[in-house]
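Changelog-adjacent note: as of this version, every example in the card shows the full chain rather than a window. The one below runs 95 residues end to end.
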Amino acid sequence: MKIETWYQHNFESQLEGRYISLKHIKPLLEKYQDIFSISSAGTSELGNDIPTITLGKGSNKILAWSQMHGNETTCTKAIFDFFKFITNNELFKDE
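Full-length structure tokens:
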């Protein structure tokens, strides 16, 4: 598969534009709630939930943190591209 085709299949199109906020992410969190463990790490200074998404069950823990500042959305978008990729069962079929 060419990289352009791969990217089109794994790009999370629901997150558009330079700025994204929790209101943009909430529908995606709902979409993945039956696949990943989604909880709240607490609340922000403005009282918004800080989502925590847990995948896997191994003994090693890896923390990935995104969007510490509201205008730094690239990592958050990439994380949701990754979620779309790993939940795409068609890509992992034996041929």
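Structural remarks: The first helix runs from residue 3 to 10.
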